[in-house]
Amino acid sequence: MIILDSPYVSPLLEDVVVKKSYPVLNNEMVRSLSKFEMMNVLSDEAAVDLLKMEKNPQLYSNSENAINWISTCLKFSSLPQKIELFKNKAEFRRLLKSIYPDFYFFESGFENLSTLDTEKIRFPVVLKPCVGFLSMGVYIIRNAKEWIEVIKNLRDDIEKFRGQFPPEVVDASSFIVEELINGEEFAIDAYFDKDGKPVILNIFKHPFSGETDVSDRVYFTSGEIIKSNHERFEHLLLKIGDLAELRNFPLHMEVRVDAGKVMPIEINPMRFAGWCVTDLAYFAYGIDVYEYYFEQKSPDWEKILKDRGGEFYYFTIAEVPVSLDKSEIKDIDYNAFLKNISHPLEVRKIDYRRHPIFAIVFAKTDDYSEMSNILKKNMKDFIITG
After folding, report:
1. Sheet holding 312-319, edge to edge
2. Is the dihedral of CA 265, 251, 357, 220 positive or negative?
3. Gap between the Cα atoms of 106 and 93, Å rounded
4. Dmax (CA) of the chain
5. Dihedrals φ, ψ of 285, to 5°?
6. pLDDT, position 337
7. CA-CA 20 to 30 A from 200: which of 29, 60, 232, 297?
């Protein structure tokens, strides 16, 4: 079964739901979709009855907003507890303690952050909500002076994104402080099948514009990225799956690799990469991740990558700067924005008045500098105000 919810439903996901007649929970978001009348929708009661039929039912959601429904309606199952293991970043660190016994982290209530003794904090650290989404409320802090500045401005920053998501998705009442994980960042979309075997559907590299950048502007993949990382990421997933006893469980994992050592940053449960980043697998490799999960299919990577060259496939998201008053926006210059992209494969214009972004683009390039250039762009340059 699938739970579709805000903020965004990918056209690819909507199409496969209709094509395969996968059962979908009937909710406000589903009723707003153009293909609602063609969908196999279930009431809450029918959905619960369906999920009760299996010990480890197949469930997927495009949005972490579905967590509240799962926590409320599926208390009879182990899913709420398994989701909490990953959604709560402090619980996740405790789960991994046996694999990474020396990793430094601690949890603190929001109100206590300003009174912590900075001399006892092992800088540099990352501060983020225990329950968060995308890069909201994430800060890299390198010393006591920066700590004081971040904490001073934290309350105002939180108010800017509070209300965009329910507390099950973003909750600023509790924070985790953890050691800064160095290295190159990767993201992995995968699922555990009915037997507990991890199946990797895509591996992305997540570049940044600089040391303090925590944005999600660009993700890219290539044949070389898959070949170089599949084995070690699969090995880590096996360990995590054994610890959490995962079956029929989709997830999105973020890691960093430094000198060959793989360190998880976080795992997002019951979904693949958010804001449809996961659709990059389709544009790059022809893999419909939703169908692969529900049909329990595994990519034949040797065949898929056989004749691949050195091209990159990437996703970019064009965000509206938080500092910009949306009431002043008159239009978006999409043509100017797209001049930075040599081979766009699909452009999805997003309602910037309802969401914090104005575009999602899937593209192909042979030139790495194209992605680097987009990373450094000021999105205000493409927003017409007046």
Report:
1. 261-269, 249-258, 184-192, 198-205, 218-221, 312-319, 357-365, 343-349
2. positive
3. 9
4. 60
5. -130, 0
6. 98
7. 29
- What is the pLDDT, as a whole number, of residue 211? 80
The tens digit of pLDDT for each residue in 313-353 reads 999 999 999 889 999 999 999 999 999 999 999 999 999 99
Domains of the chain: 2-85 (no CATH), 103-179 (3.30.1490.20), 184-385 (3.30.470.20)
The DSSP symbol for 356 reads S
How far apart (Å, rounded) are the C-alpha atoms in residues 351 and 360? Answer: 11
DSSP tag of 165: B
Q: Cβ distance 235 to 229 under 8 Å?
A: no
pTM above threshold 0.85: yes
- Continuous segment of H or E residues that includes residue 268: strand 261-269
Strands (E), 181-222: 184-192, 198-205, 218-221
CB 16 within 8 A of CB 293: no
Strand partners, 189: 202, 252
Rounded Cα distance between 3 and 41, Å, is 10
Whose tokens are 């450094």? That residue is: 376
pLDDT digits (tens, 9 = 90+) for 35-86: 999 999 999 999 999 999 999 999 999 998 899 999 999 999 999 999 999 9
**Integer Cα distance of 290 and 275 in angstroms:** 14
Instruction: State the amino acid at position 257 in one-letter form.
Output: V
Q: Cβ(187)–Cβ(219) under 8 Å?
A: yes
pLDDT at 358 over 90: yes
- With CA atoms as reference, report the closest residue to 177 among 232, 107, 86: 107
Per-position DSSP letters for 129-145, written without gaps between them:
EEE--TTTT-EEE-SHH
Q: Which long-range contacts (CB under 8 A, 24 or more apart) does 210-214 make?
A: 211/140, 212/140, 213/375, 214/135, 214/138, 214/139, 214/140
